[in-house]
Amino acid sequence: MSQFQVSVGHRCSPLEVRSVNKAKDMEEESNVSSSPSTRLRHRKQQRSSSAEAVVDGNPSPLLVNDQNKYKSFMVRTYSTIWMIGGFVMVVYMGHLYITAMVLVIQIFMAKELFNLLRKAPEDKCLPGIKHLNWHFFFTAMLFVYGRILSQRLANTVTADQFLYRLVSGLIKYHMAICYLLYIIGFMWFILTLKKKMYKYQFGQYAWTHMILIVVFTQSSFTVANIFEGIFWFLLPASLIIINDIFAYIFGFFFGRTPLIKLSPKKTWEGFIGASVTTIISAFFLANIMGRFPWLTCPRQDLSTGWLQCDADPLFKPEPFTLPAWIPGWFPWKEMEVLPVQWHSLCLGLFASIIAPFGGFFASGFKRAFKIKDFGDSIPGHGGITDRMDCQMVMAVFAYIYLQSFIVSQSVSVDKILDQILTNLTLEEQQALFTRLGQMIGYS
């Protein structure tokens, strides 16, 4: 029997429904009738279980005053080394593997966010609700990735006529397939509505769609950046990592002034130190990354071979004379600079000043749900969502900046060919080829 049949056919017994409602009533009653002393003891227990240090009898969440900070620092350092090592290996493997990594990250993020509003008693009476959430997730994934990768998939299979026809058909009816899958999920949701569970079920439905917007909005921009050139994915992601690491280091050793109440451990010292370090790193990282065709060439198909292309003017070194106010003892008066390095300063400025607000938003979100982290999959860091909060903001900005100020919006031969391959059938392409031959012959 399928999961759909189980979820439709399952009926909570009156005893189960009463037990769920009784649990809700007891929870509300305990929240209302608890005395101030009881609430105070509860808050003290929460404080004692957290990692906050105590100085002169007052809670002090700053890292510089944390008695266990060296232990947590080592755990966080080991996890960071492993993550950076794995990240570098995936980047070395290429565009397709980076996209697969983004997909895995999305799944973990969705899992952590789905679990925030899960309630065991209600889920026991609604056994198909978890599968329904994932149905909507994979439908959205098919829609987003289909739109982004369809053109490159067509470029990959052009040599095989059968595969090309199959892929062309899938591309043509892609939106219809996604809409059909969504309608199936919508009908599934309506058919599984149960009395006294409406509020919870509609809450889960709305929460699922909110997660899809948050997760797939940033991922679509991220994947688009990857195929424009790994450089446009790697540099913004690296700047967020650098900013996060140095904010932690400066706050760890020098943090004294709290920055924002939403994140008690964030300090002005950490924020300013990380900002300066990130902007400087952006300038020099862009110079290093911009010299590798593997990172700068766009990928037009889904193959995994090494890329070679004519360097874009952005990645060709140009002489730059240092301004007159540079001190005379400085050994260089002229240096080679890639034009993209000036753009990297904008990315570094955004990564250090604006992107951290994604982290502040996540901190406020966690406070609203009274949790410390979204998950515990990364020792010392929390969950995947805890690491991706700033990355989501940065990926959107990098894409908008790239398309607005860097990528040429004029029509090119490559763009026209891509449109021909994805939108015309084989017979139409042959007819176009014949007409072009006739036009060239007449000229």
Automatic annotation (TrEMBL):
Transmembrane segments: 81-110, 131-150, 170-193, 205-224, 230-255, 267-286, 342-362
Region named Disordered: 19-55
Compartments where found: Membrane
GO cellular component, one term: membrane
Keywords: Lipid biosynthesis, Lipid metabolism, Membrane, Nucleotidyltransferase, Phospholipid biosynthesis, Phospholipid metabolism, Transferase, Transmembrane, Transmembrane helix
Enzyme class: transferase
Pfam families: CTP_transf_1 (PF01148)
Cofactor details (free text): Requires a divalent cation for activity.
Enzymatic reactions: a 1,2-diacyl-sn-glycero-3-phosphate + CTP + H(+) = a CDP-1,2-diacyl-sn-glycerol + diphosphate
Gene Ontology process terms (BP): CDP-diacylglycerol biosynthetic process
Membrane-topology annotation of the record: Multi-pass membrane protein
Obligatory cofactor(s): Mg(2+)
EC number: 2.7.7.41
Superkingdom of the source species: Eukaryota
Pathway: Phospholipid metabolism; CDP-diacylglycerol biosynthesis; CDP-diacylglycerol from sn-glycerol 3-phosphate: step 3/3; Lipid metabolism
Record carries keyword Transferase: yes
GO molecular function: phosphatidate cytidylyltransferase activity
PANTHER family according to UniProt: PHOSPHATIDATE CYTIDYLYLTRANSFERASE
Function: May be involved in the synthesis of minor phospholipids and in modulation of IP3-mediated signal transduction.
Family according to the record: Belongs to the CDS family.
Name listed for the protein in its UniProt record: Phosphatidate cytidylyltransferase
Organism: Brassica campestris
